[in-house]
Write a structure and sequence with these properties.
heterodimer, A: about 260 residues, about 40% helix, B: about 300 residues, mainly alpha, about 0% strand, flat
Chain lengths: ~260, ~300
């Protein structure tokens, strides 16, 4: 069994892009993260798995500065995210893409406008160039004709794709997925997983995928961290992870998932 | 005479001289401050008071942030136009209806009283002055708070609970510039426009009641109403009642927009949180308008 590795030892020889170091976070009396430590190598897709309420999404939100840890460090390229100034955090965010659980599309903008928003707000690109890039990303997520629709006019699966396209529009170095398969049927879920794998291979970007579906982890992730009570108790390559030896992980995955 | 036992003689204790003396001047001066500090401490222990202070702080912070970004308005012209339409055109019929009946009520109430003294020919003066000074801006603001203010809070509150605000944040989109600036500007522009309509329809409604129910000739009502609006202000040489009312309505529009946006932006906890944000926005907007109205009246008419 390979439990969560001591990150400081591991990272020295590897190209670590993202690191959690003894991160604690509580909401009132509820302690969600209790000393979370792990790191992610550049270009890898890391899955974060765990039961409900173990702090998976909370951990993800720390990476992009939506939440601040009570203690510990959340480093991106060696810089502690909570210590960044507003300007530096904004610059860092421009190099990241975040796919929200429900898409989080701005409901009064069309799909095209949703995709174009970060470019319109943060770049000097012209209208034509933005339109080209929007069309390219919509084609990449296999919904080239959805541009003129409002979010309320498209299905849940399409919203996920639009959310993914919006995250990709800035050509991010780091992609963060918050339960990309939540609420989707198995068929759409498979197509989303394949899309995520395609993106990982074609963009060579680093990704963190919060997920509790084994099929997604198997298809998309290179490594997996398993959280239990706010700590990373297992950190292994996906193949090893899916042949679990840790009793809590065996209990979580169940006998069916291991086949 | 038997002398009293020594033990029964109780010595009379006199307080030390420094305690009998009047308190030093600095102590007397400090007492009000000490009292105020004590009162502030007690109030700060009350959760509701702390929450109110925090809420007011966030409103002031948002107002400051909005003011700093007003120069972004040309970039937000599309959203500004949409908000102007939503706040102006969609509420116009409500303002006109309420303004009409308010003018009729003022005319009827004052007309009945003035008739007792044979002074009903002054109805036009009273209706015009009360509509332009107070009723027009206030009624328009209440309508805006109930309709546009609640809609703003619900819209931003829904964005907050559905992670749309977080999405803006992770895309490095300035949400004050993107969401708040066009909404605040729209209400500050549309409130005086609606106030003019409200004033006008109210004065017309008052004239209708005066002529049809109180026996005041329409020409006389019109003349007295227009005369009442001629008085020029000391600061600006335009009709005082009109510009003071319009100035108030600009302030009221800004207050309603800022309070409603602040309420929506901090909404948490799903549909329940959005509902609470909406009702809080309307309640706080109306309170703010009433309080601000007093101070503005004091400032403009002192």
């Amino acid at each position: 069994m390979t439990t969560a590795a001591p990150t400081t030892e591991r990272s020295a020889a590897q190209d670590v892009i993202l690191r959690f170091e003894d991160v604690h976070k509580a909401f009132g009396a509820q302690r969600v993260l209790r000393g979370l430590s792990f790191d992610v190598q550049r270009g890898k897709v890391l899955g974060i798995m765990g039961g409900s309420g173990t702090g998976k999404s909370v951990a993800l939100r720390h990476v992009i500065g939506l939440l601040q840890p009570d203690s510990g460090r959340v480093e991106v390229e060696g810089r502690n995210v909570p210590d960044l100034s507003g300007h530096d955090l904004s610059e860092l965010r421009k190099r990241m893409g975040y796919v929200f659980q429900e898409g989080a599309l701005i409901n009064w903008l069309t799909v095209e406008e949703n995709l174009a928003l970060p470019l319109v707000e943060n770049t000097e690109l012209g209208r034509g160039e933005i339109a080209d890039r929007v069309a390219e990303k919509l084609a990449m997520v296999h919904i080239p004709d959805a541009g003129k629709k409002l979010p309320s006019e498209i299905s849940g699966g399409m919203k996920k794709r639009v959310g993914l396209a919006r995250a990709l529009i800035v050509e991010p170095d780091i992609l963060l997925y918050d339960e990309p398969n939540a609420g989707l049927d198995p068929e759409i879920s498979r197509s989303i997983n394949e899309l995520m794998r395609e993106i990982a291979e074609s963009h060579e970007s680093t990704a963190l995928v919060v997920e509790h579906r084994v099929d997604c982890i198997r298809t998309v992730c290179d490594e997996v961290v398993f959280l239990h009570e706010g700590e990373a108790i297992v950190h292994q390559p996906t193949e090893e992870f899916l042949r679990p030896s840790h009793p809590r992980l065996i209990e979580f995955l169940g006998p069916d998932a291991l086949n | 005479m038997i002398p009293a036992p020594q033990a029964l003689i109780v010595p009379v204790m006199t307080p030390p001289a420094h305690l009998l003396a009047a308190p030093p001047g600095w102590l007397a001066d400090a007492l009000p401050f000490a009292f105020a500090a004590g009162l502030a401490y007690v109030l700060l222990q009350a959760a509701w008071f702390r929450a109110t202070v925090v809420e007011m702080g966030s409103i002031l912070e948002l107002a400051g942030a909005t003011a700093m970004r007003l120069h972004h308005l040309p970039r937000r012209s599309r959203w500004l136009m949409e908000q102007l339409f939503a706040a102006g055109v969609r509420n116009m019929h409500v303002v006109l209806l309420v303004g009409l009946f308010m003018g009729m009520i003022v005319s009827l109430q004052t007309g009945i009283e003035l008739s007792r003294f044979g002074q009903q020919d002054q109805i036009g003066t009273i209706v015009a002055a009360s509509m332009t000074r107070e009723m027009g801006p206030f009624i328009t603001s209440v309508v805006l708070a109930a309709t546009t203010g609640s809609a703003l809070a619900a819209e931003l509150g829904t964005m907050s609970v559905s992670d749309e605000l977080s999405a803006l944040e992770v895309m490095s989109v300035d949400r004050v510039s993107f969401l708040v600036v066009p909404r605040v500007a729209a209400l500050m522009i549309i409130a005086p426009v609606l106030t003019v309509l409200c004033d006008t329809i109210g004065i017309v409604g008052g004239g209708f009641v005066a002529s049809s129910q109180l026996g005041v000739p329409l020409a006389q009502y019109t003349e007295t109403a227009l005369d009442a609006l001629q008085e020029k202000g000391a600061l600006i040489p335009v009709p005082m009642d009109v510009y003071s009312g319009l100035f108030k309505s600009v302030i009221f529009g800004g207050l309603i927009a800022i309070i409603s946006c602040a309420s929506g932006l901090v909404a948490r906890g799903g549909a329940l949180g959005v509902g609470r944000a909406t009702s809080r926005a309307v309640r706080d907007s109306i309170i703010a308008v009433i309080v601000a109205n007093y101070f503005l009246t004091w400032f403009l008419y002192r």
